[in-house]
Design a protein that fits this description.
By secondary structure, the chain is α+β, with helices and mostly antiparallel strands. Helices cover 41% and strands 14% of the residues. The chain has a 4-stranded mixed sheet with strand order 1-4-2-3. It is extended, with a radius of gyration of 22 Å.
Length: 147
């Protein structure tokens, strides 16, 4: 029997209509993965690491819209909002108290585009590797002098 019962109507009235793929929508600020051009984590947004990637994506996808996670302080999204204004990309700040996500910003369409890789690649900084090896060489010298 595919019909709705009284409990279904009550739940829909209390909690709203259930949308397909609700967990995915909670993760990606209300949109679906198949619609996303680029997704940035909160850390990438707050540190402005994703600005160049986001700008390139906005240049190529001017009909898309930008969604921000409302749990990020406004001071951290000023640069991204300026880019959106520069390329006339509308943006919205999404605050959903019921879901916790690490996604900070999403450039998305209202229809599916099925882009395979939607996340920005984290770059390994050569300086960090050099600093780490430099630290190890200092510790090694210290042990050799005291040994």
């Amino acid at each position: 029997m595919a019909g709705k019962n009284t409990e279904d109507y009550l739940n829909e009235g209390i909690y709203g209509k259930r949308l397909p793929k609700q967990n995915e929508r909670n993760t990606f600020l209300g949109t679906l993965r198949e619609r996303i051009v680029i997704a940035l984590t909160k850390g990438q947004v707050m540190s402005d690491k994703g600005l160049n990637v986001l700008e390139e994506a906005m240049k190529e996808n001017r009909d898309a819209k930008l969604l921000f996670n409302g749990h990020i302080a406004y001071k951290f999204i000023n640069e991204e909002k300026a880019l959106a204004n520069k390329y006339n990309v509308p943006y919205t700040i999404i605050t959903n108290e019921d879901s916790k996500t690490d996604i900070g910003a999403v450039l998305t369409y209202d229809h599916a585009i099925d882009k395979e890789n939607i996340f920005m690649e984290e770059e390994v900084v050569k300086d960090t590797i050099e600093e780490t090896s430099s630290l190890f060489s200092k510790v090694k010298k210290w042990f050799q002098l005291n040994g």
